[in-house]
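hey m, so remember when u said the tokens were messed up on ur end? i reran from scratch. heres the input so u can diff it against urs
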Amino acid sequence: MSLIGVSMLEMRQMIEQACLPDRCEVTCPDGVCLTIRLGQGESLESCVLLTGVPIDSLNSCRDVVGLVGQLRLEQRRQGLRRYA
């Protein structure tokens, strides 16, 4: 894990909580890269899917914030979330 002292569970919680109020699901099936699904509201039916995010690329909280920003940008591009 790149963020020293941060477990995979804590990493998942940071990303998922940063995406609130929308539902976000973070998995790491291979222990190397994250798969992230960001839905709208409580649903994951129509969602942004981001795969292959290397855990080693998340070295700081700033990197996590950048990742969440990338997810939100893609969400807007797909028209899943409209912001005022």
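this time it looks ok to me. The first strand starts at residue 24 and ends at 27. if urs says something different then somethings off w ur setup not the seq
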